[in-house]
Design a protein that fits this description.
There is one protein chain. The chain is an alpha/beta fold and 142 residues long. It has helices at residues 18-33, 44-51, 67-78, 84-93, 103-108, 113-116, 126-132; strands spanning 8-13, 37-42, 97-102, 122-124, 138-141. The chain has one domain (5-141): DsrEFH-like (Hypothetical Protein Ychn, Chain: A, 3-Layer(aba) Sandwich), CATH 3.40.1260. The chain has seven helices and five strands, in the order βαβαααβααβαβ. Strand 1 (8-13), helix 1 (18-33) and strand 2 (37-42) form a beta-alpha-beta unit. Helix 1 (18-33) runs parallel beside helix 4. The protein is globular. This is Peroxiredoxin. It comes from Vulgatibacter incomptus.
């Protein structure tokens, strides 16, 4: 049975900065907790960090003047704040979150399909992405 596209959330994650990864996983966890289906599409640097396990390790490169904020964030994670990996694990465990890898991004990063296939639910190209997200109004680009 197809899910109403208005009840789906599509997240396009290309940046590899930890704040982007965490935000995407926070959206995914919140949406699935609310009973919505989530499609998380990984591109470029986000895909690279995901494949290498970088969602588990908070690391920040703040712009000048925001070093104190980055230190506070690092302290929060050391104090038990959930990592991007933990949030994504909750979302995926709900059965309402599907993680996709962009096949072109994988190839451009020099990754073979077998290196990523067991870490995501599906490896797809843009034709499939456009078809999968048709009608989805809640889209996030990070």
């Amino acid at each position: 049975m197809e899910v109403d596209p208005r009840k789906r959330v599509a997240i396009f994650l290309h940046g590899g900065d930890y704040d982007r990864l965490h935000q995407a996983c926070s959206i995914a966890a919140s949406a699935t907790a609310g009973g919505r289906d989530v499609q998380l599409f990984l591109f470029w640097w986000a895909l690279e960090r995901f494949v290498d396990g970088g969602f588990s390790t908070p690391a920040f490169s703040p712009p000048p003047g925001l070093e104190r904020a980055a230190e506070a964030a690092e302290d929060a994670f050391e104090g038990g704040y959930p990592t991007a990996a933990a949030l994504l694990e909750v979302a995926r465990a709900s059965g309402h979150c599907t993680v996709y890898a962009c096949s072109a991004s994988a190839g451009l990063l020099g990754r073979r399909p077998d290196e990523i296939a067991d870490k995501v639910d599906q490896v797809v190209g843009w034709s499939a992405i456009l078809s999968l997200t048709a009608g989805v109004s809640d889209r996030f680009y990070l």
